[in-house]
Every structure is written in C-alpha cells, then in structure tokens.
Amino acid sequence: MPTALEFNDISKLYHLGRINSQYFSDEFSRWWTMKVRRKEDPLLKVGETNDCSHKGESDYVWALKDINFKVEQGDVVGIIGKNGAGKSTLLKILSQITSPTTGTIKINGRIGSLLEVGTGFHSEMTGRENIFLNGAILGMRRQEIAKKLDEIVDFSGCERYIDTPVKRYSSGMKTRLGFAVAATLDPEILVVDEVLAVGDAEFREKAIDKMRELSRTEGRTVLFVSHSMASVKKLCKTGVVLKNGRMDYIGNIDGAIDHYLMRNQVLEMDAAFPQATVRGGNGALRFQYIRLLSKNGVERSVFEVGEECIIEVGYQATEALKVCNQSRITVSIMSSSTKHVVAWLSSSIFADKIDTNSSTIQFRIPQLMLSEAVYQIKLYAYVDDEAADEIFDAAQLEVLYHDYFGTGKVPIKNVSFVGHTILDYSVSWSGAKSRII
Asked: For the whole model, what pTM was predicted?
C-alpha cells in the first residue's frame, strides 16, 4: 500500500507566557546563529520535556519532540495519551494550522479535519452556506458540493436548522454538521480529534461506523484522537501512544491500549497518602498505601467495564488491633460527580477480625460492573466499633466503557446512584484467598 502520511523528526517548541511564538529579536538571533555563524539553532538546546504536572526551570517547552512514523493509505490510526501529551498539537501541525519547529510531513492526498467544535465555520453564516465554504476550502467546485449537499444534511440530522446561522446551533449540532462535512466532502485523509465526545452516544456510533466504512470501502486514511478506549479499539487498526510530547509506543491497537493503560495511567502515590485531604481515626490501625492492580498484577488506575480489578491495601497494626474483639477494613467506591457511594467492600463479610499476622489485604473484584465514569475510593478501618483510620480520597478509579454484554449499547454515564451496591468480590490476606460471595 502507498504511504499516505510520513512524519519525519517532527518537533514543536513553545515559549510559555508569549502570545506570539517569537519576537523579531528572537528570529534575528536565530538567523544570525544559524546562517552567519553556521551553528545549531539555539532554541533546540533550551527546551524542556512537556510534563504538565511539574513546574520546569525553562520557559521553553517541547510540545512534541522527534515524532517519526508512517501511515499507510487506508489505515485507521488511533492516537492516544494523557491530556498534554501532544495529540492535538500533532493534528494541528498535520492540518497546517501551526507549523513544526523542526521536521517535515509528507502528505499524499487532501485532508479533512475536525479538531474543535465549530472549526472552519463562520458563525454568522447558515449551515448550508458553511457547507459550501468548507467545500471551497477543500478545493471542490460548487457543482461537486451541491451533489453532496443532501447526503451531508441527512447524515448530520440538522435539516430543520440548515438555513439558520451556525451561531444559534448547540455544540452537539455543530459537531454533527462539522463531522458530516469533513467525512462527506471526499477527503483522502480524515483527521478527527476528541470533538466527537461532545455528541450524543447514537451519533458517536454513527460517526465511527462512517469512518470505518470510508477506510474499508473507499481506502480513506483516518487519524483518530480519543480518550475513549472503547471507541479507539472499535475503529482503529494501529495505535500511537504519546507521552510528554514523545512517541511512547506504536503498533497494533490492542498493544497500544494495553501499553497506555499499564504505563501511562499508573496510580501515583506513596505510603504517606500526600493527596489525602481528610484523615481521621484513633490510630489503632494506620493505612500505609493503596494499589489498584489488573488481573496480571500490573498497577494502574484505569479499567474497562467487566474487567477484573484488585484493590490492595497496606496497613500497620498496633497492640490494640491484636487484642480487640472485632475489626474490619472497608473500601467505598464513590462517584466523583455525585459523591454517592456506588460500591461497598468489607473484610467483615469474610472474617470478624483483621489478620494481624499480615500487613496487606486484597479485595478481588472478578468483574468490575460499574458504568463509565471517574470514581473516588475511600478507606476506613474500625476496631471495636471505633474509627481507627479514615481516608476519604485515598485513590482514583477510572472506568472505561466496554461492550461487555455484546449489545453495542452504551449505558448511562455518571448515574446518580442512591445507596450502594455490594460487588461480587473476595478478600485475601498474604495470598490466602477466601470464598467469593
């Protein structure tokens, strides 16, 4: 297959705090150094890695650094990574919205881009007028666009408002029309950023089916950026993982998703629970750490619906714990949006007392049946009905949608639960697993 895209040493340097990229003095200094003194570009030596979570020492940051890969014609490539990894910057360079600091991109074909809600639309123009405007930008003749008009309007589902100015459209309507235009006006290469997350679930599935059809039947190339691993897995063949502006992995999509979940979403916390904002208890037992583990024992904080999840908690016992009559460790999983408890796990289901010969307890959930959302984990321990330790924000758990039931239907996100659910789980101390309820 011929090559549709080729990224050669693409890097992008930003100067933090500047509205424009450089002043004239910067440009003149670079020109003097490179052209007159025949030395390396001075900016290439001062930039730091793009790590959003830490304050750096330099005002120059590499949003992208040394990106090299090829995309074959007809391939569907998913670009995944955490916020700030450089995904959108890469697509903006590809769409020629911004230029790279170093490197080149070889493009074989016409590009249709959908990067942000309303991109390429004039707010004062109607939906119909914007369709013709976008087609003209892509180099199409008016007659060609007119032939596609009914198909675009039908796919977008915006027929009633097609002659209404776009400024009166909702974000979802703009997304629908924008995708319909980008996908229908014959681009050889379709570039879609996270913007589809704005649309409803029905349209998102419709858009993914359309991109798959373009690739399979018409040989179109698709670059797709999304935080939804289910959407990426359903659509893409190849995956590129970006981390802090650099390529961290490239390969088949299953390998890319596994790499991303295991390497880039690792739970970062130490024994002191520095992120805990509320902690109480009399100290008869003190929690030391919490880890979320996959079935294979890999530490991470992101799981798919129906996947096995192990919550491991380290603790330190005291004499009071050893001589008590009753004790328990309990894990509550709470919705981050509503703060309601959605799941409850406790050692008291399996034993009256905590094992004082061990310093670790594991709660094994064979199938994590929670809806797609972000959850907070609360830890608390009771010794003889008195609170020994309580940590209200011990960890964060993110659950991603997975078609577990094979119906293709997406459950409601962030359901406002009332009360709690006792998940099917087991408890073990020092590897000695007890029964599963």
From this structure: 0.60
